[in-house]
Amino acid sequence: MRHNRRPVPGRGIARTGRCHVFDAVRGQTYAVDEPALLLGSGESLSRGWLDRAVDTVARALRSRRKAVVWCAGGHDLSTILGYLGALRAGHAAAFLPTTGTEESVARIVRGYRPEYAVADENTTRHLVRLGYVPTEAGHCRLLVRRGGAGAAVDDHTALLLTTSGSTGTPKAVRISAGSLAANTAAIVSALAIGPESRAAGALPIQYAFGLSVLNTHLWAGGSYLLTDERPTALRLWSAMQRSGVTSFAGVPTTYRSLSGAHAQLLAGSRITAMTQAGGRLADSVVLRWAERMADRGGGFHVMYGQTEATARISVLPSSELPASVGSVGRALPGGEIWTEPVAGHPDGEICYRGPGVMSGYVETREQLAIGGEPLDMLRTGDLGSVRDGLLYVSGRIKRIVKVLGYRVNLDELEQFIESPEGRVVFIAAGDRIVMVVEDGWSGDREAGRRAIVDLLGVPDATVTVRCLNTIPRTRSGKYDYAALSRAVNGDPGAAGRVRDREGARS
């Protein structure tokens, strides 16, 4: 059911030429000696230090008109300074990942002609050959392009992000300064993030969820642990203890991979908040971590979001568990969620209006000149239902396939064969359903296959089982279904060694 429209709070928060989101970095609200960035050694960089470092970058980015600043580095201090400096200077910060080859770098340069770039050593070499020159910008590895400015950029545009599966493609989600500010403020409110909050930077900031963790904690006057460790690395968890981290964010792969050793390190930490987004996590895993956090007087918060909505759309507070397990919660403050019918399916397409909706997709620099205002609403492409104000996600529309004339939701099959380890996925191959099992899954493969045959009511040979050493995932930890299909359908190099299950029907 579609709800009545409400005004979206936060629009207009962005001022011309500077994004209000990060004024807190300047020390106008919080003492300049309070920590802003935490280092794994236990040391910290103060808010005053960060303010001066960002100003240094913003001065190096001065230009007569709005420019594109390509943040092509990794999860490091240089990239964060380049990002914040771009916002402060009133430019558009662009997180456009590449495969690291010269051609993939050149593809981004041709598509967006960024006037500036912040890059790692490898990408810097490629950029220099493409006409970029390193320039002084304090602790930021900044390059400037020779040859003048590109086409104009609409004044509303503050951020360009690619969706989680994109690598080396010029297609990007355009986020306005107002959407960035509004979504950040709404998340801060929903999660009660404050000056005492200390977040672990365990997710890549090129990924919308990871960037949101940085944004929200800087907005709220909190601090952010800067690390290049993986979320499951015990060294990271030891650093979180030393730095007094209070919140941890992860995707389903993260929480499925945490072990007893992590639980022991958690017991000795100050962590009182955990958040999860980026896909469905098995109910049993959600409840296990919610119980652990409740024992600590904290909370485990399940969230749902999309890059097209800046970061996050809804949150399920831990206070609603276990009663509402399986839900991804209610819309962020100021937002609304509803579904619209999808032919032939009991669930509808999830639609959203509220803080953070994108301004559309862009693929070229020329497209940045127009259409910078946020869209009125977002059609997510996800299937779900809203019950008692809570959103339940059942899958992606593009993951609905026809097999022998039947419509099959592959995401629902994954939910049916609930695997806390996350090692079972389904793809379609012609008129067959392929149950792909990763090494290490503890379940009974043949029993799982038979359960799907019975559920769908299809001939026995319609459902087959294949095994992979490792199920391919995107940089954000989601399943890479495109690579998986290539691997299962004749390109084993796309996802590691593929072998048939012993005795499986093919």
Write a brief structural summary.
The protein is of the alpha/beta class and 506 residues long. Helix content is 27%, strand content 25%.
Explained architecture:
It is a single chain. The chain has 506 residues and is of the alpha/beta class. The chain has two domains: 20-392, ANL, N-terminal domain (Rossmann fold); 404-500, GMP Synthetase, Chain A, domain 3 (2-Layer Sandwich). It contains 13 helices and 27 strands. It has helices at residues 47-60, 77-88, 102-112, 121-129, 177-191, 208-219, 234-243, 252-257, 260-267, 283-295, 410-416, 445-456, 481-488; strands at residues 35-39, 44-46, 68-72, 92-95, 116-119, 132-135, 142-145, 157-161, 172-176, 198-200, 223-226, 247-250, 273-276, 299-304, 314-316, 330-331, 336-341, 348-353, 361-362, 378-387, 390-396, 400-403, 406-409, 424-429, 432-438, 463-468, 498-500. Strands 6-7-5-3-4-8-9-19 form an eight-stranded mixed β-sheet, with helices on both faces. A five-stranded mixed β-sheet has the order 12-13-14-15-16. Strands 2-1-11-10 form a four-stranded mixed β-sheet, sandwiched between helices. α1 crosses α2 (77-88) and α5 (177-191) packs across α6 (208-219). It is globular, with a radius of gyration of 23 Å. 50% of the residues are buried. Residues 1-21 and 492-506 have low confidence and may be disordered.
